[in-house]
Amino acid sequence: MLADEDARNTTNGTSKAHANGKSRQPPSGTGAANGTHKSVVARNGLSKSRPPDEYYGHDREEVTRLLIQTLSDMGYHSAAQNVSQDSGFKLESPTVASFRNAILDGAWAEAEQFLFGAAISGDVEDQNGNGLVLAPGADRNVMRFWIRQQKFLELLEQRETGRALMVLRTELTPLYQDKQKLHFLSSLIMCQSTEDLRSKAHWDGADGRSRQILLSELSKCVSPSVMLPEHRLAILLRQVKDDQIGGCLWHSDAASPSLYSDHICDRHKFPTEDVVELDEHSGEVWQVVFSHDGTKLASCGSDKQVIIWDVPSFRVLHSLKDHESGVGNVAWSWDDSMLVTCCQDRHARLWDATTGACLQRLERFGEPVSSCVWAHDNRSFITGSLDKNRSLVQWNLSGEKIYDWASPHRVEELALSPDGRWLVAMDHENHIHVYNFGTRDFEYKIDLKVRLTSVSISQNSRHLLVNQKNGIAQLIDLVLREPVQTYTGHKGGDFMIRSAFGGADESFIISGSEDGYINIWHKVTAQPVERLVGHSPRCNSTSWCPTNPCLFASCGDDGKVKIWSNEDWRRAHMETMHRPQ
User: Fold this and answer.
1) What is the value of pTM for the model shown?
2) Which residue ranges does the record assign to the CTLH domain (predicted)?
3) Residue 150, Cα to own-chain centre: how many angstroms?
C-alpha cells in the first residue's frame, strides 16, 4: 500500500537518523539513485562548462544524467560524483533532492510544501510556479493523498490512534479521493496489533520498504526531465534485449543476451528433430505435459492410464491405471509432488507423483471431468466439468469442496494465471469466462463466435492463448479484453487440439493439428517458424519443457509420445535415453 510529523528529519515525534533504518549510502551493488541515498545536487539540467550537445544522436545531458544515476545505483558513488563534476551535469536539483529526502525522512509537511510550490526553486517549478513539474496526467492531490496515507499508517503503527484518526478526518477525507479506500483505511483503526495492521494493509511499516515504495510511485508522477525514473538505464537496456529477442526467429537460448554484441540464435539449435519416440500407450494419446521443474513428463489418453516419465532418460516412473475410462487431462501441482487426473468415468483423482499412489478420488460428477488447475497455495485445486451442477469447483487435498462458483455453463478447459489473478473457463461452445480468482468474482465473458478447443495463459499472466475449431489460434490481452495476435496454418476439427506457449522467454506458440503436423509460430510477429511432421492421423497436444527451451513433447492418435530437440541434445543424452524393450 502507498502511506505525522511536521518537522524535518523526524517521524511521528521520533528521531530518525536514516531513511527506513538504513544508511542512505547503500553498499556497492545495492543502491538506487532514486530513493535510497541523498544525491549529488545542483541546478537540474544546467551545465557548468558546456551547452547541451549530441552524443551519437543522443542528448549529451540525458546520457550523462543516466550514467550518474546508474553509477549511484551500482554503488559507485565517487565515480558518480566525478562524472557530475567533470561534465557539469547534475542528476537533480536541490529541490528534488530535498523532496526525496523529506519522503524518506517522514517529513510529510515539508514534502507537501515541495510538491505544491512552497520553498520551491524556479528550476523545477511548473510555468505557474505551482511546485514540481508533473508528468502528463499526474494529479497533485492524488500524490498528496498517498503521502498522507503513509502518514496515517505510520501513526497507527506507533499506536497513536487519536492522531491517526485526526489525519483521516481532516487531511485524507477532504481530498475526496477513493471513498472505498477511505472506508478501508478507517477499518484499519480497529487492528489490534502492528502485525495485524501490516497484514491487512499489505504494508511493511515505516522501517520496511514502504517509504521507498511511496517514493517510487511519486517519482512516476513527476516529469522525468526533473526526476529520473528509477533505474532508467537498466530499463532501457532491458528493452534493447527484449527487442533483439523479439527479432530472433530461432530464439533458443534461455540466458540473457550479452550487451557486447547483437543477439542472434543458431537455427541448428532449434528443436526440430524427433529424438525419442515413446510407445508404451496402447491407444490414442490425448495430452502430454511437463512438470514445472522439467524433470518429469505425464501423458494420458484413451487406454485409461497416465504414464509418468523421467526426464531426460524418458523411462517410465509410474503407470497410473486406476481409471475406468479414457483420461483427457492431467494437472501437476506447483511443487510437482502431486497431480490430478480428469477422467471420462466422471471422476477426478489426486495422485502422489513420487510413489504413484492414488490419494483421493472425488465424488462422482454427473458428466465427465474435463480439466483441472492448481491453486498457488498447492493445497487445493479447481476442476472443470461438463456437469452443469458442478462445472467449476475448488477442492482441498482431502477431496472436500471449498467453493462452488455455481457457474451455469459447462466447462471443457481451465487456465489459471501464474500470478493467481485470472481463472479462465472455456465452455463447450464459443465462450471464455474470466474470473478474478482472488475474490472469486466473475469479471467478463468473450464470445469468439466459433467452437474452442483449448486455453492457456502466458507466464507474465497478461495473455490468453485460445485455440479454435476453425484452425485459428488467438492471443488475447486479458486486461484490454481484446485479441492482439492471430496464428493460422494448422487444421482444426471436432476434437480437442491444444496449443501452448513455449521456448526461451516464451517466444513461440506451438500447436498440434488435425492433419498430424506440429506448427510453431513466432509469438510476437505470428510468422511461421516450423511445420514438423508429427503424428498420424492427428497431433492432439504439445508441451514445451519449462526449463529447457530446446525440448518439447507431442502426442497423437498413433499412440506415440514424441520428444523433440536437436542433435546436441541427442548426443548429450544418448546413453541415458529411453530404449524400446
Assistant:
1) 0.75
2) 92-163
3) 27
